[in-house]
Amino acid sequence: MMKKIIFLFTLLLCTYGSIQAQKSITVKSPDGNIRFTVQVNKNALPSYSVYYKNTQLVKDGALGFEFDNGTFGENVTLGRTTQRSGIEKYDLIAGKSSHVEDAFQEAVIPLKETKAPNRQVNVVVRVFNDGAAFRYVFPKQDQWASYIMYDELTTFDLANNPDVLTMFLKSYTTSHEGFYSQMKYSDIPANQLMEMPTLYHYEDVYMAITEAAIRNYAGMYLMNEQGSLRGKLSPLPGQQQIKVKAELPHQSPWRVMMIGKEVGALISSNILTNLNDPCAIKDTSWIKPGKTTFSWWNGNVVPDSFFLPGNNFYTNQYYIDFVARAGLDFHSIYGYAEQPWYEDENMSFEFPSETANVMKPVKSLDMDTIAKYAASKGVGLHMWVNWKPLYNRLEEALTQFEKWGVRGMMVDFMDRDDQEMICIQEDILKKAAEHKIFVQFHGSSKPSGLNRTYPNEFAREGTRNYECYKWSKDMGADLDIAIPFTRLLAGVTDYHLGGFHAVPKDKFRIQYTNPLVTSTRCHMLGMYVVLECYLGMVCDSPMAYEGQPGFEFIQKVPTTWDETIVPSASVMEYVTVARRHGSDWYVGAINNSKERSVSFKTDFLSDGNYIAEIYSDANDTDSNPNNLVKRTMKIDKKSTIELQLANSGGAAIHIYPEK
């Protein structure tokens, strides 16, 4: 009997010791399909694993930090974990959906050091039906008032060797205008920065890794480092060691894994806005997305007339009149050729002088007269500006812009996402809102769902877009088709749409004025729906549009949406995106450079009969890519629409209730 008692006591001690040495917390999605488990091991970094049903997506990803006063994570214990369920319920002025209600499960997991300096970091895990996310929260504590972070030790070590679609970058200082590569996870080259979002395809599920709510923190990239897929933070300027400086309390962005059985579920997901704070702007009545000219792209083309194109009233009057005639919303003022509209002794878009003054137009540009004329026509003004001279005198500049009646700004050439630049961007958004001005970030990093908090953020670039047609021969549909499965997953895009001078690829040539494009007219129309953008650009000249087939679709396609779904898609081949505005639906389809037939069901419609106006590629688009066929058909929710997509082709559809 005594031997049995000793044996049972020993077994109990061993079991207790094992429990103390290794603890785990699991959080499941409301539908039970996604599981996120955090595990604490003695003398090792905490780790996490992610599953979709029976498929493991992430295996033992690491959690931790390297601070100036040592590593955090190797000697920690679990504090008291709290769990809750909830529903993210909110409205969006500009987004994929005007109203969102997404259920989630959440756990707050305190990690406490067992040795000095006895710091505490909370890992907050939140799991939705379409993805899982976690962030680090640094609570206020007596022995730790601030930190200098050298690195996150976060890794995203993937299981099962999925297929990868990613962009490689040369450095943290980048405009993100690259091309995408496909490979197996095991073939990712070492020590190369990878852009986020990056897409992973497992046998029966898709996952994309990105981040949400980047505020007062550095942007993150991925890198295959010593066989582990590590998160790499953008360093503060002028050095490489320090990534983040902060006073406590503080928190990191959310590290997000978008997950879906179909890739379209990632495109339509609202998980990034779910993970951002509610709207910070009290009066939002002035926030009205729309479409704008951007005459820089076409070379400021004007008709044969009595005036020269340039920084003058008559050039802008011509475009303002076009906006009014066409029912567009804004006219962009950027300058002429490569000279900004404001005084700058460098006369440079990209490299302004220290004395550049965005409150003082060049002598030939009478902004007061232009502003009065635009107002008389009901046209808003949208001003291009380099971020440096703007930010140097931000309040003064915005005050002057407001006096001119400026409705929005394109803020350009940031090319960084370190903590300092992230804070600058939020300052610009916040101050611009105080002056009732929307913001389009160009030459910028990816979005992170901040349009929920600051709905005056209408667009972000962070991608290689159609401006490159002006100087490059490597643009085309095979790049376009990568965007919905990568960059678009992060949110709103800025793509310089509307090129109406399409030519076959073998006839393409570089021309800075009236630039050519190599996708079909219907591919171009479809992009207005496929891409998420609240500032639709109409970049070609008025002469290129008026009287041309398909322009009426650009005139009527909305820039705000009540609902988004993806009826059909195949990675790097084609995609169809359907977006609802009121009772009308708009569908955009784009194809890569291989001709194909696609079809989709219209079961997303409500009951009743509908008319579908379909713009599709004509039979001769190989030789005349500007040609299209417009047809109408009666449909209902039981219908199927079939599309023949040309090489580099597409389609655009307007669906509305039959009267």
Detailed description of the structure:
Its cofactor is Ca(2+). Residues 560-655 form the Glycosyl-hydrolase 97 C-terminal oligomerisation domain. By secondary structure, the protein is an alpha+beta fold. It folds into 2 domains: 23-274, Distorted Sandwich (Beta-galactosidase, Chain A, domain 5); 290-558, TIM Barrel (Alpha-Beta Barrel), CATH 3.20.20. It has 13 helices and 41 strands. The strands form 10 sheets. Strands 7, 8, 9, 10, 11, 13, 14, 15, 16, 17, 21 and 22 form a 12-stranded antiparallel β-sheet that branches. A hairpin with a 2-residue loop joins strand 35 (574-581) and strand 36. Helix 5 (313-326) runs parallel beside helix 6. The radius of gyration is 26 Å and the shape is globular. The N and C termini lie far apart (89 Å). The model is unreliable at 1-22 (pLDDT under 50).
As a percent range, the share of helical residues equals: 10-25%
Nearest-integer average pLDDT: 95
Q: How big is the Rg?
A: 26 Å
> Might you state the CATH topology name of the largest domain?
TIM Barrel
Low-pLDDT stretches? 1-22
| CATH architecture tag of the largest domain | Alpha-Beta Barrel
Strand content: 35-45%
Count of helix runs: 13
Alpha-carbon distance between the two ends: 89 Å
Overall geometric form:
globular
Give the number of DSSP strands.
Answer: 41
CATH superfamily of the largest domain: Aldolase class I
Query: Domains counted in the coordinates: how many?
Result: 2
CATH domain class of the largest domain:
Alpha Beta
The largest sheet is:
12 strands, antiparallel
Class from secondary-structure proportions: alpha+beta
